């Protein structure tokens, strides 16, 4: 069992609470992560990602994709089958599931598609212009001095 103390991180940083909370949640989770349905996460470009889940047997109406509180929640619930069936072997799992993915700031879902039993969810990181690095022009001291207005004392 691994135990990490994130107290020094809280004492030495400001604004990184979310990262520390995510790390703490992941590292101290005693419950094993569910392996159903299997999924891939791929980086398709510098700021785009794709999550692919294997959801064989599920129709579009059986699946839901939602974003709430900086988390992507993918859930599937198979509608009740009206037909009585007798299986000799049942290897295709169609049990209900819920899979959660933590999203970073400024990551948004751009679309979802179901193709050949694979649910593809496309994401894009869009950093606002105000947060992008910008170059600051350096001026000489002479240019700054000539803009100073002479002020006289009031008293």
Automatic annotation (TrEMBL):
Domain of life: Bacteria
Keyword set, alphabetical order: Stress response
Pfam family, one: HSP20
PROSITE patterns registered for this protein in UniProt: SHSP (PS01031)
InterPro entries: A-crystallin/Hsp20_dom (IPR002068), ACD_IbpA/B (IPR037913), HSP20-like_chaperone (IPR008978)
Domain SHSP: 30-141
Family from the record: Belongs to the small heat shock protein (HSP20) family.
Name of the protein in question: Molecular chaperone IbpA
């Amino acid at each position: 069992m691994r135990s990490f103390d994130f107290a020094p991180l809280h004492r030495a940083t400001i604004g990184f609470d979310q990262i520390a909370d995510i790390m703490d949640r992941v590292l101290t989770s005693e419950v094993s992560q569910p392996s159903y349905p299997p999924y891939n996460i791929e980086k398709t470009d510098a700021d785009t990602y794709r999550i692919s889940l294997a959801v064989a047997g599920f129709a579009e109406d059986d699946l839901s994709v939602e974003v709430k509180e900086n988390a992507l929640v993918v859930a599937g619930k198979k509608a009740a089958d009206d037909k009585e069936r007798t299986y000799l072997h049942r290897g295709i799992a169609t049990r209900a599931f819920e899979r959660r993915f933590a999203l970073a700031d400024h990551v948004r879902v751009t679309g979802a598609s179901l193709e050949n039993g694979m649910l593809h969810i496309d994401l894009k990181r869009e950093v606002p212009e105000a947060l992008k690095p910008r170059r600051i022009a350096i001026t000489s001291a002479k240019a700054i001095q000539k803009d100073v207005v002479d002020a006289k004392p009031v008293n």
